[in-house]
Amino acid sequence: LRYYWDEAEKPCVVIDEFGYLVEVDAGVLSDLQRAWDEHLSKKPSFLVLCGSMVSTIEVHVLGRRSPLYGRRTGSWEIRPLDFKWARELVPSYGFEDAVKAWAVAGGVPLYLKELDDRKTPEENIVEAVFSVGRLLFDEGYLLLREELREPSTYLTVLKYIALGYASVGKLSSATGMDKGNLMKYLHVLEALRLVKHVVPYGQRRKGVYAIADNYMWFWLKFVLPNRGELELGMAEEVLRREWARLEEHYGLVFEELIRQLIASGAVKLPFKPKYVGQWWRGDAQIDVVALDEGNALFAEVKWGKAERGDYEKLVEASQKVDVGARRRHYLIFAKGGSAENLVDFDELDKATRQW
After folding, report:
1. Mean of the per-residue pLDDT values for the chain?
2. Which of 60-74, 104-118, 210-224 shows the lowest mean pLDDT across its residues?
3. Model confidence over 163-206: pLDDT tens digits?
4. Which of 33, 63, 104, 131 would disulfide-bridge 59, Cβ 3.0–4.6 Å?
5. Which of the listed CATH numbers 3.40.50.150, 1.10.10.10, 3.40.50.10490, 3.30.1360.120 matches domain 83-241?
6. 29-75, pLDDT tens digit by residue?
């Protein structure tokens, strides 16, 4: 509990981690309601309730059944940092290594501060994530236990999404849950921003589910399934075995990052997109589709180097996408290479530093 007083300003009471107080004594909500109604609301005062337990705050503080319902004058959800700010916490890293750090720790400052930018990202994975006793080794479990009443069931759903069982049908078969019950769990995970539903451009259905939080995605793919070996101190052996999948993971995170950079305006286009997404049909896929009323951008995203034929393949694939009479633009995002209309890591490094 913090109390701030300034003769020229309103007195301010700040209660941090209010969710834990509610869990210990739910009666504090009624006590606070009475204090607000009878005293604080009638004086020039300012009350701030903070908490990291999202579900507790949303249900017990902001929910309709809460004694405090209808009394808030504002609320803010503090989300993970965007890439621009996240990379400031690993300042010695160039663009490629900063993307790797973001793929491992996401945009949570506490997680990023576990990484030492004097070491390579892979050294950090071994020492800060794959090592028993470190914060990032068990944080995935702790997050679920803190937020959810049935963490094991939610963990099962998340694990299969991370393994690629992305549709409701495949998830239902893998988990053994009927679709109606499964959807209830997916809605909760979406509300907690651990999962997102992705629908291809031009479709209203046929969407898939994906892990929305970078740290949780990494933990589910590389820590959870290798936990037994990691507990035996075999971190370097696990890293060597998982190297190819790790590079693939970097590429998937990089693809999502490019969509975010385009949507935010960090990557300059000849138009300002009002929609940024992706498209797929069968085996055909386009990593980025961005639109305004008169323009359409199609982009290919590659973690490695782009080849000469990549541009032509992108143009050919885009002919399957109906964007009406919009003017079509094409870009290739990659580490380097010889493809036409290439945006490489050096350009992305400058764009994200100046953004």
Report:
1. 92
2. 60-74
3. 999 999 999 999 999 999 999 999 999 989 999 999 999 987 77
4. 63
5. 1.10.10.10
6. 999 899 888 887 887 778 888 888 777 788 778 888 888 888 888 88
Query: CA-to-CA distance for 279 and 281, rounded, in angstroms?
Result: 7
In the chain, the DSSP E strands lie at 2-4, 12-15, 46-49, 195-198, 208-211, 275-281, 284-291, 295-301, 305-306, 327-333, 336-337, 342-343
Which tokens sit at 49? Answer: 């309730």
Pairing of strands 295-301, 327-333: parallel
- End-to-end Cα, the chain, rounded Å: 37
Whole-angstrom distance, CA of residue 352 vs CA of residue 268: 11
What percent of the chain has pLDDT above 90? 73
Assigned token pair, 105: 């720790």
Cα–Cα dist 170/161, whole Å: 9
Evaluate whether the domain defined by 266-354 bears CATH number 3.30.1490.
Answer: no
**Token pair for residue 244?**
């190819």
Rounded alpha-carbon distances, angstroms, from residue 97 to 65, 121, 303: 47, 6, 12
Per-residue pLDDT reduced to its tens digit, 304-344 = 999 989 999 999 999 999 999 999 999 999 999 999 999 99
Q: Are 320 and 350 within 8 A, CB to CB?
A: no
User: Looking at the predicted structure, is the pLDDT value of residue 121 above 70?
Assistant: yes
Q: What is the C-alpha to C-alpha distance for residues 317 and 15, in angstroms, rounded to an integer?
A: 54
Cβ burial, residue 341 (10 Å; 0-12/13-18/19+): middle
Task: Scan for tokens 């010889």, then name that residue.
Answer: 338
Instruction: List the one residue out of 139, 146, 144, 154 whose CA is nearest residue 108.
Output: 139
* Dihedral of alpha carbons 244, 250, 251, 252, sign: positive
96: number of Cβ within 10 Å: 16
Is the separation of the CB atoms in 100 and 115 below 8 Å? no
Q: How far is 75 from 60, CA to CA, in rounded Å?
A: 14
